[in-house]
Write a structure and sequence with these properties.
heterodimer; A: mainly alpha; MetI-like fold; 2 domains; 0% strand; flat; B: mainly alpha
């Protein structure tokens, strides 16, 4: 959560605003209106930047080879979408990201909780996690390609490794910081070890686990694009590299913007889900 | 053994040389225990690679890899590549740190700046910035400028958000006291706001430094030339797998030293602060 204090402090985003409006239809109309207007006002600087981009290219201040006009980028985006290239490559990329991140969650969360719960597991895995955590995961790209080739398997492995460490560590920290009084109360009330783990430790670790997955989500996008730029035959990164090598810069800009916006949208969606899952908290 | 030491540490009198000896012994045993798993893992690597269960191409033995690292050191390749990577990483980091802190303070203290930068930061933070590398290559060429730009763009966001949170979190009483004692806005900034915000700003820098290093390596992988990343990719193109693994070892050690270095710097800079404990490095 500490990742993005600006957003958390600020008003809801337009996307978030829409969902909130739908959820609270009973609220007075005016406040919904204000929310939308506030969201628009909030994102005006981005609009200004886009206008500046268009103006600079229209006025011929920069060569169209270096910065294609924004409307041409949109046209290129549309033809990529209509031609199916964007969808087919995007589907490959998103499937890789989802597989890697999903595996990391499925293995990383139980591992982290077990590390907090059992001493032998902790002394076995803690040094490994601590030693591997600062290691730049991108350095493993050549090795994953060496092992698993140019296809999806090498990307999934890399994303899995990169995402698992923050998830494991956050699950470990979250489970370890479960309040001692809660544990004592549960034990007092006759809960066994498994029941305590599932009903007390896991829920109290949930905020940190979700925050860890949020970090991992950002890692997944970065690692995905990086490895696809370096060695792939399909995917967003491959498409960017291929279009750039071919000199089709308006289409390249279109794909770069698409990936960036998807990364941003995924983060916002996860934030919404976090707020929903943690609504029982104060 | 460790159980006994722990119990002894609890039972030891809270004064005198005995307590120091027990504490030192405890710390030593923890280091040994942490190192043990790592050594086990490395020994397992060596044994597995030597056993013939896996081809030497997919996993060269650790001893071969270390010999390769040693050769790189003697031939001067390591110094050249490490120097190139570190130069880009630290140059980019320095720009990201100074610009990030400045922008962060401006955002925290000026309404217009906040209005302008807040949406840009909250959109830009979760974006996979590495997708912009082909664009920077187009604009700034294949040499250091584009790589350093990529590093700055990637590393600046954690610095900005940490600085904003830190500056906004400075205790109001400190500001009021300084103002009522007649401090000008300028002295307030340098003598109250910045020192009070320093711990959290340093946390942001501790996130940004490894990011700079990783991006420097990835840029090398994508664009070639000199540097650790480029050396690894070249090795993998020539199917020189000891070279690839040597690159991983070199990068891991360099990354570890950087992280430890900035943690030491933090302890030095914050000697006056009550919190001189280590923070978790991301």
């Amino acid at each position: 959560m500490a990742l993005d204090p600006l957003q958390l402090a600020g008003p809801a985003t337009p996307a978030a605003g829409g969902a909130v409006v739908a959820a609270t239809a009973a609220m007075p109309q005016r406040s919904a209106m204000r929310r939308v207007l506030g969201g628009l006002w909030r994102y005006t600087p981005i609009l200004l930047l886009a206008l500046a981009w268009e103006a600079v290219t229209r006025l011929g201040l920069v060569s169209p080879l270096e910065l294609p006009a924004l409307d041409r980028v949109f046209t290129a985006w549309w033809s990529l979408l209509a031609g199916g290239d964007l969808v087919s490559n995007g589907a490959v990329s998103l499937a890789r990201g989802a597989a890697g991140l999903g595996l990391a969650v499925v293995i990383g969360v139980p591992l982290g909780v077990l590390m907090a719960w059992s001493r032998p597991v902790r002394s076995l895995f803690n040094p490994l996690v601590q030693a591997l955590y600062p290691m730049p995961k991108s350095a493993l790209i050549p090795v994953t390609v060496l092992w698993l080739g140019f296809g999806s398997a090498s990307k999934i492995l890399l994303i899995f490794i990169g995402c698992m460490l923050p998830i494991t560590l956050s699950a470990f920290n979250g489970a370890r910081s479960a309040e001692q009084t809660l544990l004592w109360s549960a034990r007092c009330l006759g809960a066994g070890r498994t029941a305590t783990l599932l009903d007390v430790v896991l829920p109290s670790a949930l905020p940190e686990i979700l925050a860890g997955i949020r970090i991992a989500l950002a890692f997944a996008f970065v690692l995905l694009v990086t490895t696809e730029l370096i060695a792939a035959r399909a995917g967003f990164g491959y498409l960017i590299g291929w279009l750039g090598d071919g000199g089709v810069y308006d289409a390249m800009f279109a794909v770069v913007l698409t990936v960036s916006l998807l990364g941003f949208a995924a983060d916002r969606l996860w934030l919404l889900l976090m707020q929903h899952l943690l609504r029982w908290r104060e | 053994m460790t159980e006994i030491l722990e119990r002894a540490a609890v039972a030891a009198p809270r004064r005198g040389a005995g307590r120091f000896a027990v504490a030192a012994g405890f710390a030593l045993s923890r280091h040994l225990r942490n190192g043990f798993t790592l050594i086990l893992l490395l020994a397992g690597w060596e044994a597995y690679a030597r056993s013939g269960a896996v081809s030497e191409f997919l996993l060269p033995p650790l001893s071969v890899v270390l010999e390769r690292v040693w050769q790189d050191t003697l031939s001067g390749d390591l110094a050249i590549n490490l120097g190139a990577t570190l130069y880009r990483a630290l140059f980019g980091f320095a720009i990201a740190a100074s610009a990030g802190v400045t922008i962060g303070i401006l955002i925290a203290r000026n309404r217009t700046m906040r209005w302008f930068f807040d949406p840009i930061v909250s959109v830009g933070f979760p974006m996979p910035k590495i997708a912009f590398l082909p664009i920077f290559m187009l604009w700034f060429g294949l040499y250091d400028t584009s790589k350093i730009t990529m590093i700055v763009v990637s590393a600046i966001f954690p610095v900005i958000t940490a600085t904003v949170a830190a500056t906004q979190g400075v205790e109001k009483e400190l500001l009021w006291s300084a103002r009522s004692l007649g401090a000008s806005e300028r002295r307030l900034l340098w003598e109250v706001v910045l020192p009070a915000a320093l711990p959290q700003i340093l946390t942001g820098l501790q996130v940004a430094l490894p990011v700079s290093m990783i991006v420097a390596i990835v840029c090398g992988m994508l664009m070639g030339g000199t540097g650790l990343g480029a050396a690894m990719i070249n090795a993998s193109r020539f199917a020189d797998s000891p070279g690839v693994f040597a690159g991983i070892v070199e990068i891991a050690i360099a990354g570890f030293c950087l992280i430890k270095g900035i943690a030491m710097l933090r302890r030095r800079l914050l000697r006056w602060h009550q919190e001189t404990s280590e923070v978790a490095t991301v």
